[in-house]
Amino acid sequence: MAIDKVEYWRELADYDIETAEVMYGGGRWLYVGFMCHQVIEKTIKAYWSKIKPDEVPFIHNLLKLAQSCGLVSKMSPEQLRFIAELMPMNIEARYPSYKEELAKKLTPDYCRTIIDKTRELKLWIEKQL
Question: Above 60 in pLDDT, residue 98?
Answer without folding.
Answer: yes
